[in-house]
Amino acid sequence: MDESQGLGIPTVELANGFNIPILGLGTSHDGGYSHSSVLYALKECGIRHIDTAKRYGCESYLNKAIRESGVNRESLWITTKLWPGDYGYGTTKAACLESCRNLGVDYIDLYLMHWPDANVPGKTNRELRAETWQAIEELYDEGICRSIGVSNFLISHLEQLKEDCDIIPHVNQAEYHPFQKPQELVDYCRNQGIVFEGYCPLAKGLALSHPDIIKKAEKYKCTPAQICIRWSIQNGIVTIPKSTKKERIWENCQVFDFSLSGEDMVSLNSLKNNSKIITLTFPLWKEH
Length: 288
What we know:
Low-confidence stretches: 280-288
Mean pLDDT: 92
Radius of gyration: 18 Å
Shape: globular
Strand order of the largest sheet: 4-5-6-7-8-9-10-11
Structural class: alpha/beta
Helix content: 25-40%
Distance between the termini: 35 Å
Order of helices and strands: EEEEHEHEHEHEHEHEHHEHH
């Protein structure tokens, strides 16, 4: 891992040569949006990686925060996502350009398909994914999207995309925390040159009260949140915690001045697995 420009936050190289900061700030419609907290993250915490989505409804708010921060566009990594309601060749291109306008940018650093399914009448999900990905590949070739990827895709979805399209996704973003560590998916992505990115690293706060995590926080003289984020980063996962509280954002960034021992990594890796926090009711996760 390299370090981003003078900020001390390591980066991970994607298959296309671009470097994504291993720690980012997540945003979403769940829990609201805080303009002052995003400004704080950019100006005081050295955050240069912002993760958002059309679905979250805050792209235009981020536009304002980025402009007010004074941070140079070239030093930022902005990820946004295509919602399934916009899947399809023409609608994908229109939605991407709309996100660019909302964000006030000429290009997007990473553009993700938000979900594997869209359930459009008359087309299989596989056909729709391929059609959508073709449009995203063209946006990539045109330089509008500097890197492209997917979110919440299973191995079967990635295999189909590999068969149907030309460019393997640069990133797959999925839920990742001590209670949900999809190692088979992570290993597959790494074997294919796909960087794995994890959201919900604190398990929506549930990990903060786990006795083993609390014990390790006491050992390292840090917080349970920092243990979870450090564990994720040490596993090589691009990690995007979300918070609208300034003190939590600062706390989440203070994870590069210590390392967890091999023994403690093994212990955390062995916590109860397959406990998903994000329950997907739409779209349905299907193996087809």
